[in-house]
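#structure-requests
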Amino acid sequence: MSIPVVAFFNNKGGVGKTSLVYHLSWIYSDMGRRVLAADLDPQANLTAAFLDDDRLEELWGDGVQRMTVFDAIDPLLRGIGDISDAHCEPIDDKLTLLVGDLELARFEDELSLQWPQAADGKERAFRVLSAFWRLTQRAAERMMAEVVLLDLGPNLGAINRVALIASDYVVIPLGPDLFSLQGLKNLGPTLRMWREQWHDRVARNKEAHLDLPAGSIVPLGYVVLQHATHLNRPVRAYDRWMRRIPEVYATEVLEKPAPPEDLEVKDDPLCLGQLKHYRSLMPMAQEARKPIFHLTTADGALGAHVKAVMSARRDFENLARAIATRSWDQSTRKRKRRRSKPAD
């Protein structure tokens, strides 16, 4: 039984996706759940959020000896072997990081080349296209993780295509703006196309011994981030876009009928949560190199900041529970019901 993989993806950048993965990784750890955070964005921003420059320099090495995701796939890329076990960087007792790498961009061309080869049933193509899934599964098993959280770059390129077919679920972070809505109109059809193409390719795989991802890519819902508020309501400039999110998500991502026009994001069952801008807390957390809900008076969280830190923790805990309930907790309950069902 594979370990559930949840990808956080939007082909529109600047919506706070990496910050979301970073904070959710920490909040799951705080809640006692073992999590593997995998940085599959060639910009490696998630890795930079977790690690300081000195440790990054050690892990990235001198270009020959690296301890990153790229190092694990390099033998496959060079045609001298299959993937190797990826280095797992301990962050906390229950939180581990698969270290990102700018070199990962070199994998893009090979992935593009092998995608059509898989349609012809070529074994190497399937090994290349399943590399991310196989290495994250191996790492998660070693770390006894309950879930893998993937951070991806903001594009519809070959790296993200194979990262998403390695995912059981996808969470879509959104900003309340026109660009996020337009991005959804591209994202929904693309996810469906990639899912269908992968299923077609898997059916052509001739090597029964090769373990491949299911490529489910089930949309769990959306998260609205970084909306400014006034008296606990979105400011007028964003309000018009907020009102359109439920319709665009339902119709473009899920191909479902449009919900009632008066349905608000806060009442939309497809919305996993809304996260505020948190104003000065975010730069304070970045300076302290910790999640915002770990900030203390020693970090400068004084007065009203203390209340804001507590509010941020509640927001992320609620979001973490919503994601877990719709994904791997639900899968676990179904497996338990199947095991307890009496045989005929």
